[in-house]
Amino acid sequence: MENKKASWGDAFRLNWRAARIWFSQYPNMFYSAAADYGLKTILPYVTIWFSAQIIDEFTGNRDPQRLLKLVVLTLIVTTVMALLQAAAHRWFVSQRYTRNGRANKMYADKLLDMDYSVMDRQETYDLLTRVRNSGSWGAWGLVNINGSFEMLMEAVPGILGAVVLSVSMFTAKVPTHGNWLDHLGNPLVVLGVAVLLVALTALSAHLTNHANHIMSIQDRNFALGNRTFNFFGWTIISDRSRALDFRAYRQDKICADYLAGNDGYSWNSISGKKARGVCGIMWGTARVVDKLFIGVIYGYVCLKAWAGAFGIGSVTQYIAAITALSRSVSLLLELLGRLRNNVSYLETTFEFFDLPHEMYQGSLTTEKRSDRQYQVEFRDVSFKYPGSDQWALRHVNMKFEVGRRLAVVGQNGSGKTTFIKLLCRLYDPTEGQILLNGIDIRKYNYQDYLAIFSVVFQDFQLLAFPLGQNVAAAKDYDPVRAEDCLRKAGFGDRLDSLPDGLETCLYREFDQKGVEISGGEAQKIAIARALYPDAPFIILDEPTAALDPIAEAEIYSKFDEIAGDKTAIYISHRLSSCRFCDDILVFDQGRVIQQGSHEELVADESGKYHALWHAQAQYYTKG
Ligand code: ADP
Question: Domain check: are 263 and 410 in the same one?
């Protein structure tokens, strides 16, 4: 755990980079904060200045005309400023509420932009969890920038306003009395007082910063505790799909045990003890030093007024201005400390944002062939998952033509899904080449290439939005096409029974009238969704796993209609689903050990397919 303080260079570089990211996407967050904090800071000085003028008039000339003018002017100026500030504050608050959501959006954008192979790693998720936790628990990292900018917008106008209002206090001439009061105007005394005030301000800010630094390190040390709490204390309790297991096995007990040693913020935790001990002492001392500062100011200003350097109105002005000056300078010093404390969190954040694209991005467009003449070839392809030394695929050679039905079979772990992931370029082969119409798929524009595939993954996800939107994966959809795809996928009868047809909401999260659907129905919708874009390839990963035998038979019998003129690839470990495919690839331990039609393969009595078929046949013969 790096507990040492970061360099100033890093502090400015990283915070500046974070600020630029925010500003480029959400400039209004900065404008609104500048308007709100700027006005809020300047307003008291304006009031102080007018009050001093009024009091001086009271204790001086007492001219009713001028007094009236001053009072009216004070009212008008301060009212207009207060109204402007109130408006700016509303604007600022509306921006501030969106801060965490916007940060999450930036993380999500990065995740979506990443190569799938990078996103799919545990380290990537660990990094993201650390980034998000430091933001949500300690407001460190990216979201820290907004608070820092607000401090800057408070400190800088604060210092400028206070200097303007207080500089004449130091320069005011003291009339000669012939006693010790004359020394008050001595430049050395003035300098001494100024230095003392600066020293007290710096001491207070240093104590506060140091205590804050110690606490910020605690925050980092409890990253694990935060994650544990987040996951056990919330995620798994609120996850509906875990609810049954959670109750049946009372998983809260094991969660509670894990949480027990990880109480990062309770009274008896390390940070609790630090807050009561060393940090508490530093924070307390800093407040005492602040009061000393006020004492020095009162003493010096009152003595100077006593000696006749200025009137009573100016006393209130100077005391208020210099107290505010100290607050603004402390704020600025606190801000500097904060920028430095944020460094380690920003390093983690940028480690995440800088995760590189590892895949070669080609530029060729895939030909949009009206005849859909595509040919795919795996040429001696081998693949290891990143960080693994096992071959998931080894020397895979195969070819297939468009319009055909290809089945990929094999036992669990034999490499079927990996084969599909490589075909869809979620990963690139470790060795060998995959060719589309004779050209290495890496040379095609990535998005173009992806667009020729529609995949129904085994763990597909539907959203709690209207059915039609789910099928189109878009808010606006073509109802005729969506309905056609649903009917092809075997969802027609159910569609006819839905109260609002395509506009019926799935699930009830967003709509009380939403419908709950079974696993099999969901799978049909997922198949319809894959048909909607009319991509030339359709890939179904265990498409019938959640279906009952009747629904399964229905899908098979309609399979030709479903796939139409598309090339269809089926992954299955149920051999019954492969019979009607033109070509069957048999995987075993990462290798393609057989390829051919059902009849050919089942006839080869020494082959794996024959053995698997007969092992499973008992389930099918009855049907
Ligand atoms: P199948 O789809 O036939 O069940 P997979 O293609 O999923 O098989 O898996 C092939 C091999 O690759 C297995 O040994 C599996 O453990 C391994 N594997 C799968 N996914 C990963 C991954 N993300 N990281 C490391 N190894 C993996």
Answer: no
| Whether 279 and 422 share a structural domain | no
Q: Print the domain residue range for 616.
A: 375-452+535-620
- Ramachandran class of 289: left when φ > 0, alpha when ψ lies in -120 to 50, beta otherwise: alpha
Residues β-bridged to residue 406: 569, 583
Q: Distance, CA 395 to ligand 1 centroid (Å)?
A: 16
Q: 619 pLDDT exceeds 60? A: no
My answer on whether 340 and 405 are in the same domain is no
What is d(CA 535, CA 501) in angstroms, rounded to the nearest whole number? 25
Cα–Cα distances in Å, from 264 out to 224, 225, 236, 254, 349?
9, 6, 20, 19, 22
Identity of the residue numbered 357: H
Distance 392 CA to ligand 1 centre (A): 6
Confidence category of residue 261, pLDDT binned at 50, 70, 90: low
Looking at the structure, do residues 316 and 447 belong to the same domain, yes or no?
no
Q: Which residues line ligand 1 (CB under 6 A)?
A: 120, 385, 388, 392, 410, 412-418
Ligand 1 atom closest to the CA of 419, numbered from 1 = 6
Neighbours of 612 (CB within 10 A): 20
Q: Which tokens go with 358?
A: 């590892």
- Pick the residue whose CA is nearest to atom 14 on ligand 1: 413
**CB-CB neighbours of 256 under 10 Å:** 12
Atom of ligand 1 nearest to the CA of 388: 25
Same domain, residue pair 333 and 295: yes
CATH number for the domain harbouring residue 159: 1.20.1560.10
In a domain, 481, yes or no: no
Question: The whole model's pTM is what?
Answer: 0.80
Which ligand 1 atom minimizes the distance to the CA of 590? 10
321-330 pLDDT tens trace: 988 888 898 8
49 CA to centre of ligand 1 in angstroms: 74
Token pair belonging to 562 = 């479903």
Q: Using only the alpha carbons of the chain, give its radius of gyration.
A: 36
| Ligand 1 mutation target, pool 384, 385, 587, most atoms within 8 A of CB | 385
Residue 452: partners with Cβ closer than 8 Å, 6 or more residues away: 366, 374, 436, 535, 536, 537
- Residues 209 and 341 both lie in one domain: yes
Residue 463 lies in a domain: no
Query: The tokens of 78 are what?
Result: 């301060």
